[in-house]
């Protein structure tokens, strides 16, 4: 394996871990965990299914607070995962199989998601999340 191939493999593993940490924070419904994995910059953006664009860290963070305060439980099973790395930027496209509970009954949904990461220092931080519902 060449040095370039080894570096790419390392970056792919790091992005895979960063993406897992994002979904673990999402499932935990803990905004402090979400705070740690997002780049808290004015250029971060987030589009939740059916929502308008949230731009800038305060608006993005507020969207997570709103979701977490109105959800009792949420789990993800990720499928069709594709990861690409280009320098210090990476993106993950996947299908989220979501089971959530806002009331008594669990609800299932499928969302096509794109997560964009930026490497700052030695950490990959999320800078964009976009989820679109998949119609059955």
List keywords for this structure.
136 residues; Nuclear Transport Factor 2, Chain: A; six-stranded mixed β-sheet; 3 helices
Major sheet description: 6 strands, mixed
What name does CATH use for the topology? Nuclear Transport Factor 2, Chain: A
CATH architecture: Roll
Number of strands: 6
Structural write-up:
By secondary structure, the protein is of the alpha+beta class. The protein has one domain (3-131): Nuclear Transport Factor 2, Chain: A (Roll). It is 34% helix and 43% strand. It has three helices and six strands; from the N terminus they run ααββαββββ. A six-stranded mixed β-sheet has the order 2-1-6-5-4-3. Strand 3 (73-86) and strand 4 form a beta hairpin. Helix 1 (3-28) packs antiparallel against helix 2. The radius of gyration is 15 Å and the shape is globular. The mean pLDDT is 95.
């Amino acid at each position: 394996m060449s040095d370039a191939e080894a570096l790419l493999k390392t970056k792919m593993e790091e992005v895979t871990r960063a993406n897992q940490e994002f979904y673990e924070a999402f499932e935990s419904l803990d905004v402090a965990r979400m705070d740690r994995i997002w780049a808290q910059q004015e250029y971060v953006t987030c589009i939740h299914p059916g929502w308008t664009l949230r731009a800038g860290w305060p608006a993005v963070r507020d969207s997570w607070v709103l979701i977490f305060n109105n959800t009792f439980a949420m789990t993800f099973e990720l499928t069709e995962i594709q990861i690409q790395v280009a320098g210090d930027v990476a993106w993950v496209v996947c299908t989220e199989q979501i089971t959530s509970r806002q009331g008594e009954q669990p609800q299932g949904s499928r969302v096509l998601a794109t997560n964009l990461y930026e490497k700052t220092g030695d950490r990959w931080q999320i800078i964009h999340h976009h989820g679109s519902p998949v119609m059955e």
